[in-house]
Amino acid sequence: MDEAGTLVVPGGDELVGRPVPAGLAEVVRDLRPRTRRLVSVCTGSFVLAAAGVLDGRRATTHWRHAPLLARAYPEVHVEADALFVEDDGVLTSAGVSAGIDLALALVEQDHGAGLARDVARSLVLFMQRPGGQSQFSAPLALRPPRAPALRAVVDLVAAQPADPHTATSLAATAGITPRHLARLFRTELGTSPARFVEDARLDHAKRLLDAGHGVAEAARGAGFGSTETMRRRFVARLGVAPSRYRARFGTTGPGDSRG
To answer: How far is the C-alpha of 81 from the C-alpha of 64, rounded, in Å?
Structure first.
């Protein structure tokens, strides 16, 4: 192949938990200079990382494997909750369905928003989700943290997300300094204590909305303090307002639909 417009590297279970075949990484490394745009879907990001293509770049993969990607390739800036990430001609996506969102974004780049909307409509998609939108199904913790101090904090926040958690109070729970706690969060979970608490509240709010609770009730139950605060967090992180999320995913139940 002399030159390619877009090279797509698919994912696969065999790419996780074992070394990426050297020959596969070498092929990607060889083709990169002759490719205008390099794309990976799901765990295909591990191939790009093994080839050194992602060094110093932002990237994502399926939420289940994001911590492993961050640990195995510390030069990669892993954005664990993004649907897809673009960094200077290198694009990585989360799970397989996020690959569809990425494909639509590529169609829009090459042929305009009109065609992208037509393709989305043909595929009967709810909407074309932007790359910065969080993966709806990503859980708070992918596996129990190794450090007992961090595990105690994770368990507390997951069990009581609505409590007024601060970096100081969480560090006191763990019996360590706030700086050490932040280091543990960054190393093991690829996030910060504040971001983790926000994720816990978002996750709990989504469960309440899924169960049919109203927006105001979900905001109170998740510790957001007000429906407006929760709405801003939903839009910023998920790309959709709580009321729209509830309309799409929630079961019929009591409560208001404000937000």
So the answer is: 10
**CB-count exposure of residue 119 (10 Å: 0-12, 13-18, 19+):** middle
Ramachandran category for residue 42: left, alpha or beta (phi over 0 → left; psi -120 to 50 → alpha): left
- For residue 58, the Cα-to-chain-centroid distance in whole angstroms is 12
The amino acid sitting at 30 is D
DSSP state of 223: T
What's the token pair of residue 134?
A: 């969080």
Angle at CA of residue 171, ends 168 and 172, nearest 5°: 85
Of 39, 47, 40, residue with least CA distance to 14: 47
- Write out the E strands in the chain: 4-9, 35-40, 58-59, 77-78, 84-87, 90-93
CA distances from 224 to 162, 197, 219, 238, 257 (A): 7, 11, 5, 16, 16
* pLDDT tens string 205-243: 988 887 888 999 999 999 998 999 999 988 887 778 898
**Tokens coding 207:** 């469960």
In tens, the pLDDT along 25-81 reads: 999 999 999 999 999 999 999 999 999 999 999 999 988 888 899 999 999 999 887
| Residues 6+ away with beta carbon under 8 Å from 3 | 34, 35, 36
Based on C-alpha coordinates, what's the Rg of the chain? Answer: 20
| CA pseudo-torsion sign 27, 31, 32, 38 | negative
How far apart (Å, rounded) are the C-alpha atoms in residues 69 and 189?
A: 11
Alpha carbon distance 234, 5 (integer Å) = 35
